[in-house]
Write a structure and sequence with these properties.
GMP Synthetase, Chain A, domain 3; 444 residues; globular; mainly beta; 22 strands
């Protein structure tokens, strides 16, 4: 996944050059306001507009704090139904006879998750079968759920994408895929968007109740707002999908909420699938321009820039200065090729009969050389092996010399600094062609 901070006017054009294939390239040092703390899926994600807290238990969005001057905090309190309260209460369904509600929020820990952390966005995906209120007495594996949050640098909005996949014929009394609950009364007005993307305030007319493409709240004085922009909502092998979910300013015992019931009292067949993609904005709702700004944001998100590679060839290339940083040019990085070759000789002592070293295995994320000091950034393939130091210095087994001993043999290197990171997490995509062949994996 490639993410770049593109600034393209609506329906406009912009050109970006992406350079790749430089063996001396180093990891970029982005100027980014995105700050991510925590481990696994229980993260705190912040940018200049908001701070989002994800549950340490099941990864659901617990609270959202606005970074405006008074710092409105949106949260959900109370006892809930036994699980910790969160502001995002989807996804769930009710089984036949209203016997019980099965939901992702009942997870004691995410059965499956994937987190990608970068300087410009963080992506948190969780998936598995929902749990019963008395799990594991009831462990029905009928509907698989998959949900992803994506938070971006510099943006007052974030994205949630999810899907339900029916793997066995089943009956449901109700099913929700977008429900938000806010304790207290932080907002005074409700808004909604019709099928044409136009924003309206107040009550939803009956003819639009099942065909809404946005919903939310704002406060008439502070102009604080939280609005959902529904971008995609589709079903496969199912008729009668509802796009409803009106906002409620007073939900007795809770506060304010909206809930989208995509299906009610229905028989779902094996192979049925439901998909959603929503953006949620916490930008202030301006008195005069708020409606237009929300409509334009949704329009931009529905009309992303089209990426084209058939650019006209430049007859005469001109450039002032240089794009490469220190250490990325042959003139300033004569040691780079030799250093990379030496790092390729360092082995992982626990992998037998494999000649590929830590470079071909994808353990080395970055190599920088400045004034005789080599900085190496490495990872390990999984958290069951957190002790990376055996790669750094001399050890037993097949690792006769580690990173430090080998690099110090190069003329021009007087010191070696090895740093470690879990982010981004190692995946098999980092294996080179050489390593994949040795493991018997097909080439990409």
């Amino acid at each position: 996944m490639l993410v770049i901070p593109a600034d393209v006017p609506m329906h406009g054009n912009a050109g970006y050059l992406i350079f790749y294939g430089n063996p001396n390239a180093e990891l970029p040092r982005y100027q980014s306001d995105l700050r991510v703390t925590g481990e696994g899926y229980g993260l705190d994600v912040a940018n200049q507009h908001y701070v989002a807290n994800l549950s340490k238990q099941m990864g659901q969005l617990v609270r959202l704090r606005c970074m405006r001057e008074h710092g409105l905090e949106i949260a959900a309190g109370g006892k809930g139904h036994g699980e910790p309260p969160t502001i995002d209460w989807s996804c769930d369904y009710v089984d036949p006879g209203h016997w019980q509600k099965l939901r992702m929020r009942n997870w004691a820990a995410c059965p499956n998750f994937e987190v990608v952390r970068g300087p410009l966005c963080v992506r948190v995906r969780r998936w598995g079968f929902p749990h019963s209120p008395i799990h594991p007495l009831y462990t029905p594996s009928r509907m698989h759920m998959d949900q992803t949050y994506v938070f971006y640098a510099g943006q007052p909005w974030f994205v949630k994408e999810g899907r339900f996949d029916v793997i066995q014929d089943m009956h449901i009394e109700a099913m929700r895929d977008d429900e938000w609950v806010f304790s207290g009364y932080s907002f005074t007005n409700s808004v909604w968007l019709d099928a044409m993307g136009r924003l309206h305030e107040g009550a939803v007319p009956g003819e639009h109740a099942d065909n809404m493409w946005g919903v939310g709240f704002y406060h008439r004085d502070s102009r604080d707002a939280f609005i959902a922009l529904r971008l995609e909502h589709t079903a496969k092998n199912f008729e009668g999908l509802s796009h409803g979910g009106t906002a409620t300013l007073h939900y007795d015992g809770h506060g304010q909420l909206w809930a989208r019931y995509l299906a009610n009292t229905a028989d779902l067949k094996t192979g049925a699938s439901f998909h959603q993609k929503n953006a949620y904005t916490i930008a202030p709702f301006a008195k005069k321009t708020g409606a237009r700004e929300v409509e334009q944001l949704r329009h931009r998100l529905l009309q992303p820039p089209e990426v084209r590679t058939d650019l006209a060839k430049v007859k005469t290339a001109r450039a002032n200065g240089r794009l490469a940083r220190d250490g990325e040019t042959p003139a300033t990085a004569p040691l780079k090729p030799a250093a990379w070759d030496i790092l390729r000789e360092v082995s992982d002592d626990q992998i037998y009969k494999i000649k590929s070293g830590i470079v071909d295995l994808g353990y080395v994320y970055d190599l920088r050389i400045r004034d005789g000091v080599a900085h190496v950034l490495v990872t390990m393939p999984h958290r069951g092996r957190p002790v990376y130091q055996f790669l750094v210095t001399q050890g037993g087994g097949r690792v006769s010399e580690g990173i430090r001993e080998r690099l110090l043999k190069l003329n021009g290197i007087r010191k070696v600094v090895v740093d470690f990171t879990w982010h981004p997490e190692w995946t098999t995509a980092r294996l080179t062609v050489k390593a994949r062949k040795e493991f018997g994996w097909p080439e990409k």
